[in-house]
Amino acid sequence: MNFDLVIIGLAGVLVTAAPVVFAAIGETFAERSGVINLSVNGTIVLAAMVGFAVAVNTNSLILGYLSGMIVGAVIAWIVAFSSITLHQSQVAVGFVLTLTTLNLAYFLGNPYTSVQGPTLPSLPIPLLSQIPVLGALFFRADLMTYLSYVLIIGAWVWVFKTRPGLILQGIGERPAAAFVRGADVNRMRYIYTVLGGALVGLAGPVYSLGVKAGWKGTISGLDGIGWIALAITIFGGWNPIRAAFGAYLFALLQWLSLVVQPALPAIPGQVLQVAPFPLMILTLLLVNISDAEWVDRTLAALPERTRRIIARLLRAMHASPPASLGMPFEKE
Amino acid sequence: MEKKLTSRWMNLGLQSLSILAALLFTTVVLLLSGAPPLQAYRQLIIGMVGSLDNVSNILVAWMPLLITTAGLLVTFAAGLWNIGIEGQITLGAVFTTWVLRSLQDSPMPAGIILALAILAGMLGGALWASLAGVLKTFGGVNEIFGGLGLNFVASALVLWLIYGPWRRPGVASLSGTVAFPERLSLPTLPNMSISLWSLLLGAISVAIIYILLRGTYIGLKLKAIGKNIRAAYILGVRTWQYMMLSFAVCGLFAGLAGAIQVTAVFHRLLPYITSGYGYLGLLVAMLANYQAILIAPITLFYAGLNIGGIQLPIALKLDSSLSGVLQGVLVLFVLLGEGVRQRFTRRA
Question: Which of A169, A214, B4, B106 sits 20 to 30 Å CA-CA off A44?
Fold first, then answer.
């Protein structure tokens, strides 16, 4: 394979990863504030269907993207309302929603199966796209892919470099302390969950109007993306840049599995496509394993130098969730 | 006394409201899709009880769903979200198919082969569940994500088997492996698809889970872990051992459900061998508020919706996923209703 083809392939990876980037960063916002939105997988599928249907009927891409965001925001609001206001289990409500919205998408999307619809055109950026290698890699994509780059940087700056971001970290880590300092914890949680949900919803039309345009029901290839995004949120240690890195890693793997497919005719394509999932387990294992007690004990038994190297590796991989993730906050 | 009575009426009222809200929501969905709602509900009911065949098919679907849900109550008791249940059913089906394939040409009596195959299925489910358990207890991997990853791996395994070592002579396809001879199926009632054996296995499963959770120390310890794992640990409950146990027990039942899917429903290994009963079982367990006594009627109703939904594409060209929408929003509104009730009682 020649070099140009590799660059084109990698540029494709950046485009196909965009939906996962949007979803993982949206979920990062919600979880940073202390709310797990487990509905992501169904939300993306429903938003993809609605976004596509709206774009077909109105012939407007913008309305397609907006409707997907609204779907995501509404579903996230249900999660927020039932957990923050009604104190129901976030996991339970999220899981019910993920299944329900999936079925809803397949039911309502039935008439739109294999219908021709509008597609987001590619938009090479003048000048920048002419830079050797980098131009082909980054700047010959479409608007939504560029938006995903902006979001990665913007989200990171917001969370770690601004005052509201500091408060966001506070309400997820120590809500009581944030409350004492004047933060309206539950209101902020509502805002970030709904905002994060809108980003998760945006992932749907980004897929169905761009990455793989159209709606094909159960074989749209969308089912599963949301679960990957949720895992990447953890893998990313609730850090937008690390999450984006995870999203690109998974997209890269999926591309590689397509590339190696012809060399392995004995293995059906469907098998290679799940290759990221064992890897997802493995990465989650690496991210979490240093929490386990037996790891400490085993490490202590190792010779000093090996111990130090392994411990440093584990620490670099390690990520711990916002301390009050999933827990309701009640002012006394 | 009077207060207790009012709260009971309020409970009943809220539950009826939740069910009404779910029906209303589904009706709006039907209107949105341009379908006549009353017609759709009528066809759904015809699909359920319109013929003896349909009723018999509901009973066939009921048992694996019931057994799966029964198993899930054990992991729920320990506070665990065993989303890996789908993969555990799948591995049960794979192990059962494996034993049936290896022994089908042997001179052993069919009954013994079937018994061995079902036991192997249970073992397969338990092993796959233990994997999620090990990831959780020794690797710190949340059981939701570990289980989910294992589900995808399990379905890839089935695809590989169907297209690879177990492919049917001629063209390998998504229609699965070669069907087993009839003597290797659980015997059915004359002219019906339901097997008394599978009904019996279902009844035994529910009874075992009911007793395990209500009348044994194991059940008590599992519930202690589910309520507060730190407190349970301090009080001397060996937490990780019991969590592993609950995964394994749940896996046994999931594997049994998978074995029934192979020996009493499909008679072969298929790509979508679980029929989604794992995820559906999680919904039912929530709707039943994790009470063993309630899961039999609810799973019967949900199995009915699954079978009834098949009528929708035939009669009205609607997608059968409407059943899934109704099954989901029912649970959603009941959860929301429960939240409203708790809010009221807290204020009172």
Answer: A169
